[in-house]
Amino acid sequence: MALDRQAYHANRRKQMLELTDLRPFWQLVGPCADDGATRKTLPADAPFWNSKNVPWNCMSEDCDCRVHSLSRIELRRYIEAGCSPGDEAAAGLLDQVA
């Protein structure tokens, strides 16, 4: 079962990589986001996405984390809504990605 989940997430990552020009930000949703936060938003090319804390590298069968790709407009709306606790650094991302 874990292999099916990993294959799904690997395919999802491939799809998101193909759209990074349109959707340059990725958001991890779930307990793997770090330090008790439930969301972590970073540029799609951040080294974090190669870590063990992402669904396509996670070996836990209980992991139900998801990664969403975000456009600049979606990220702006997320920031204007106040970001999730622990993900306040997302507010500075719009200036980092051209």
Tell me the strand order in the biggest sheet.
2-1-3
How many E strands?
3
DSSP strand content = 15-25%
Instruction: Give the distance, in angstroms, between the N- and C-terminal Cα atoms.
Output: 39 Å
Q: Sum up the overall morphology in one term.
A: globular
Order of helical and strand elements: HEEEH
For the biggest sheet, the summary is: 3 strands, antiparallel
Helix content: 25-40%
What is the rounded Rg?
13 Å
Question: Total helix count?
Answer: 2
Total domains, how many?
Answer: 1
Runs in which pLDDT lies below 50 for 5 or more consecutive residues are none
Note the quaternary state here: single chain
Q: Which structural class do you get from the secondary structure elements?
A: alpha+beta
Verbal overview:
- It is a single chain.
- The protein is an alpha+beta fold.
- Helices cover 26% and strands 15% of the residues.
- It has helices at residues 2-17, 72-80, and strands spanning 25-29, 39-43, 66-70.
- The chain contains two helices and three strands, in the order αβββα.
- The chain has one domain (2-92).
- The protein has a three-stranded antiparallel β-sheet.
- The model has no long low-confidence stretch (mean pLDDT 86).
- The longest helix is centred in the first third of the chain and has 16 residues, at 2-17.
Short characterization:
The chain is α+β, with helices and mostly antiparallel strands. The chain has helices spanning 2-17, 72-80, and strands spanning 25-29, 39-43, 66-70.
SSE topology:
Layout: H1 2-17, E1 25-29, E2 39-43, E3 66-70, H2 72-80
Antiparallel strand pairs: 1-2, 1-3
